[in-house]
Known about the structure:
CATH 3.30.1330.10; purine biosynthesis; Phosphoribosylformylglycinamidine cyclo-ligase; phosphoribosylformylglycinamidine cyclo-ligase activity
Amino acid sequence: MTHSPQSAYASAGVDIEAGDRAVELMKASVIRTRRPEVLGGLGGFAGFFDASALKSYRQPVLATSTDGVGTKVAIAQAMDKHDTIGQDLIGMLVDDLVVSGAEPLFVTDYIACGRVVPERIAAIVSGIADACVLAGCSLVGGETAEHPGLLGPDEYDIAGATTGVVERDSILGPDRVKPGDAIIGMVSSGLHSNGYSLVRHVLLKQAGWSLERHVDELGRTLGEELLEPTRIYALDVMDLIVKAEIHAMSHITGGGLANNVARVIPDGMRAVLQRSSWTPPAIFQLVQSVGSLSQRDVDATLNMGVGMVAILPQDQVPAALAALQARGVRSWVLGEIVEHDGPGAAELV
């Protein structure tokens, strides 16, 4: 008995028809993200963005970033809730990009799964699209790959890449940072998308807590807290750059607060971050106490309630705080830049 190529592929665990249905379901989500520079529609081999839009720049520099969401996908899968994990992906992508001063233009995504369930894929892409709208960029294409035998039927992973543009002489970074500069912190929405291997090990494995467990300190279930989407700062940051003189910025992701701030500190300077200037939200204190973790361990892993940091002249602080407040971003003076013998560094004191 012979089989057609499609039925042979299906017998190997790949459902082409399910993939086609998933594409149809996600089309409306992708359309919501469309910027005027985007050409064509979904379903081609490549996405198109009209680069003539960059003619207004004197010396446009393209910036790019790629990332995933790590083991936070395991929480989404366990809770069977898939419409927010896409915001985590976009947050990781665009907020890495905007710290250079670049405006995010477009995004492509990649979803690998053990089995294509069209409604699940559509929910993931819906979350990605919603977040693209929040970031002001377009979702111009992507790929959904079915990997039976490599991933379980209900397992998936997501990743993506984004491209943006910035004037060359407007690129933010360590070369602009000066002694005496102030450091502003911006509140995170929670854990964001980093440190989940540690958090899951402490709360789910060691403590044996269930995702359905109501935690009084959190005011909701553990699963609801752990699935809280990453805050997207892209449009807030783009507005901030217009309203105040910014020297450098840092997106606080894997590695924690001090380690990420250190990445934008030049040699001969140190960022001194005042621990007393804010109180980390309950989830961070909970992970530390339940896991009997040292302060050093949590500082080096979690964002501790600070999702984004801006470095700027002291006289620009009022304008910066006012701009962020107007956009609903809670922010405060977190520390300052001081002179220091040796490589650029940051420390919590």
